[in-house]
Write a structure and sequence with these properties.
185 residues; alpha/beta; Rossmann fold; 5 helices
Length: 185
C-alpha cells in the first residue's frame, strides 16, 4: 500500500516510521501531483493554522479535498482531525468537513498540559495507550460516525466510512492496532 503523508508541517516523519514498520510504502506529500498515485493519505498532527497556511500557499486545498472525497482511506491525527471535522471552534477555522464531528482546538490545554492515558474499557481498542499533545476534543459526533475509542468518556478515535480521525497520536505509541486497522480499511 502506498500511503501519502502531508509533509507541510508537523509530525509527518513519525507517521512514516510507524507505517513503514507495518509494511506500507510512505511518500511525503508536498505537491498536488504526489496525490495521484496514492492508496491512502495521512493528515498528521502539527499546528492546524500553520498547516492550513501551507495548504493555501502550495495550492493543495482543491486536490486534498478531492482526495478526501475519493473514498480512499484518510487518517487525520490531532491537527489532522481538526482539518477533517465538519465544525471547528476554539477558535473557528476552515476545514475539509469530511467527518460529521465538531472539534474544539487545544481543548485539553497548552503544550504543558499534554498527557498520556489508556482508552476506556468497552471500545474497539481496550488498553490502548493514547498520547495527547495539545489535543483537540471531539465535542459532537454525527449519527454515521462510529466512535472506536474513548478516553475519560470523550470520543478520541472516530470513523466515518474510510475517513478516520484521532485526537491522540497513534504513531507515537508502541501499540500499532489503530494504524494496522486503518491500513486495512
Amino acid at each position: 500500500m502506498k500511503v501519502g503523508i502531508l509533509a507541510i508541517q508537523g509530525d509527518f516523519a513519525p507517521h512514516a516510521r510507524a507505517l513503514a514498520r507495518l509494511g506500507a510504502e510512505t511518500v511525503p506529500v508536498r505537491t498536488a501531483g504526489e496525490l495521484a498515485a496514492l492508496d491512502a493519505l495521512v493528515l498528521p498532527g502539527g499546528e492546524s493554522s500553520a498547516v492550513l497556511r501551507g495548504i493555501a500557499r502550495d495550492g493543495l486545498d482543491a486536490p486534498l479535498r478531492a482526495f478526501v472525497a475519493s473514498g480512499r482511506p484518510v487518517l487525520g491525527t490531532c491537527a489532522g482531525a481538526i482539518l477533517l471535522a465538519r465544525t471547528v471552534t476554539g477558535p473557528a477555522q476552515p476545514s475539509f468537513a469530511a467527518l460529521d464531528i465538531d472539534v474544539v482546538r487545544n481543548a485539553y490545554g497548552t503544550q504543558l498540559d499534554s498527557f498520556e492515558a489508556d482508552a476506556d474499557p468497552g471500545g474497539a481498542y481496550p488498553g490502548l495507550r493514547c498520547v495527547f499533545i495539545r489535543a483537540p476534543r471531539i465535542a459532537r459526533t454525527g449519527p454515521a460516525v462510529s466512535v472506536l475509542a474513548r478516553v475519560r468518556g470523550d470520543a478520541v478515535l472516530v470513523r466515518e466510512g474510510a475517513v478516520w480521525a484521532s485526537t491522540f497520536h497513534p504513531e507515537l505509541g508502541a501499540d500499532d492496532r489503530v494504524l494496522r486497522d486503518w491500513l486495512a480499511t
